[in-house]
Recover the amino acids of this structure.
C-alpha cells in the first residue's frame, strides 16, 4: 500500500511524499460503550489501515487529498473552521492539527497531504481513529515534534470529541495506537492505562458489514452517552464503572427506564470484559465465545444499539463450526458483526452465512478476514 500511496500522491501533488505513516482500524472485541463510562475494554488493531503521505510546503498552504473523496481541499495556513458537505472528511486531520495547536504542540505550517485506506468506511472498524492517528504521526514528524504514545492517542480523541463532535471514549484511538500483532489491547479507561493480552494461537476474526451505515453524529451515540451520565448521577457515582450491581438495583425505581437499561448493560459488560481477560489468559476460547454472545444479547436488549441485520448475523454465526463467539462491533446502530473463529471456520461457512443474509435482506454483507496487527507507526521519513 505504501507504493500505491506514493503513486497517488505524485498524481495529485506532482511529487513524492517526504513522510509516510500508517494507523490500523480496530475491532471492538468486547466492552461495548464501556469506555466513556470509565470501564475496561478489549480491542484488536487489525491488518487494515489508513496510510498518510505528507510533503512540506514553503507557502503555508495545506492541501488535503484522499483516495475516497474527489478533488483536493486547499486551505490557507490560518483556516481552521470545520468543513461541511463533501469536504467534511477533512475535519479528521484538521481536528488533529487543532488539537495539537491547542495542546501547545507545534504544527507544520504548510504541506501537501494524501490519505489512502483499505478500511471499509461505516463498518464499525474506526476508520476515523485510523486517519486521526496516521495524520497525527505525520504532522508531528513534519513539525519536528515527539510525544509519548499516550499523548498521541489523546490528541486523536480530542480531535474527534472537540472538533468532529463525536463524544467517543478512548477505545478507538487507544487500540489503533497500542495494537500489537497477535494480541488484544486492554484499556482501563479510568487512567487510561494500556496493556496487551495475547490471543491464543489459531484464532482470527471475520467481520461482516451489514451495509446499514451508522451516523453517530446524528445523535444516537450522543443520546446513549447522556443516558449513561444520567444513570451515574442518579446512582450517585462519578461514572458507571463505580456502580455495583447492588447499587444499580437499589436505584432502579429512581431511574428512567432508558437510563436503567443503559446502566444495566454497562455494569454487566464491565464484568464480562474482565471475565474475558481471565479466559484469554487461560486459553479458554470457548468461554470467551460465550461472553461475546452474551455481550451481543445485552447490547440488543439493554443498550438497544443493535439492528435486525446485526442480530441475524450473530444468530447465523452461532451454530457454525469453528465460531467461538460473535457480537456487534463498534458503536452499533448498524455497521458490522465480529466473529472470533478458529481455522475450522472458513470460506464455506462464510458463504452459508452470506447466502442466508442475502435471502433475508436482499443484499450480501461485505466480509473481511482480519488478524490482530501492530499499532500506528511512522513508515518512512524524509531528510
Amino acid at each position: 500500500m505504501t507504493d500505491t500511496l506514493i503513486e497517488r500522491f505524485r498524481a495529485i501533488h506532482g511529487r513524492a511524499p517526504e513522510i509516510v505513516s500508517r494507523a490500523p482500524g480496530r475491532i471492538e472485541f468486547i466492552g461495548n460503550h464501556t469506555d466513556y463510562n470509565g470501564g475496561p475494554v478489549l480491542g484488536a488493531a487489525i491488518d487494515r489501515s489508513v496510510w498518510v503521505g505528507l510533503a512540506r510546503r514553503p507557502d503555508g498552504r495545506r492541501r488535503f487529498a484522499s483516495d475516497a473523496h474527489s478533488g483536493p481541499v486547499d486551505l490557507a495556513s490560518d483556516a481552521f473552521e470545520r468543513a461541511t458537505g463533501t469536504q467534511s472528511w477533512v475535519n479528521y486531520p484538521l481536528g488533529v492539527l487543532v488539537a495539537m495547536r491547542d495542546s501547545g504542540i507545534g504544527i507544520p505550517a504548510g504541506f501537501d497531504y494524501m490519505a489512502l485506506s483499505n478500511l471499509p468506511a461505516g463498518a464499525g472498524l474506526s476508520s476515523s481513529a485510523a486517519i486521526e492517528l496516521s495524520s497525527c504521526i505525520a504532522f508531528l514528524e513534519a513539525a519536528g515534534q515527539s510525544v509519548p504514545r499516550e499523548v498521541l492517542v489523546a490528541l486523536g480523541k480530542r480531535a474527534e470529541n472537540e472538533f468532529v463532535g463525536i463524544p467517543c471514549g478512548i477505545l478507538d484511538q487507544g487500540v489503533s495506537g497500542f495494537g500489537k500483532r497477535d494480541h488484544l489491547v486492554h484499556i482501563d479507561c479510568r487512567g487510561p492505562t494500556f496493556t496487551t493480552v495475547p490471543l491464543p494461537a489459531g484464532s482470527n476474526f471475520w467481520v461482516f458489514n451489514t451495509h446499514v451505515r451508522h451516523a453517530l453524529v446524528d445523535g444516537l451515540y450522543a443520546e446513549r452517552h447522556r443516558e449513561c451520565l444520567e444513570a451515574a448521577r442518579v446512582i450517585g457515582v462519578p461514572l458507571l464503572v463505580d456502580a455495583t450491581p447492588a447499587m444499580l438495583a437499589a436505584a432502579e425505581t429512581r431511574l428512567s427506564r432508558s437510563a436503567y437499561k443503559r446502566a444495566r448493560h454497562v455494569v454487566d459488560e464491565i464484568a464480562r470484559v474482565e471475565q474475558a481477560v481471565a479466559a484469554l489468559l487461560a486459553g479458554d476460547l470457548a468461554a470467551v465465545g460465550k461472553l461475546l454472545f452474551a455481550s451481543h444479547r445485552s447490547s440488543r436488549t439493554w443498550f438497544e444499539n443493535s439492528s435486525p441485520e446485526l442480530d441475524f448475523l450473530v444468530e447465523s454465526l452461532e451454530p457454525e463450526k469453528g465460531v467461538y463467539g460473535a457480537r456487534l462491533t463498534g458503536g452499533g446502530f448498524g455497521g458490522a458483526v465480529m466473529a472470533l473463529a478458529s481455522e475450522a471456520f472458513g470460506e464455506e461457512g462464510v458463504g452459508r452465512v452470506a447466502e442466508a443474509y442475502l435471502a433475508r435482506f436482499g443484499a450480501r454483507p461485505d466480509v473481511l478476514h482480519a488478524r490482530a496487527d501492530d499499532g500506528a507507526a511512522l513508515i518512512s521519513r524524509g531528510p
Observations:
- The first strand starts at residue 19 and ends at 30.
- The two ends are 22 Å apart (CA to CA).
- The chain has a mean pLDDT of 93.
- DSSP finds eleven helices and twelve strands in the chain.
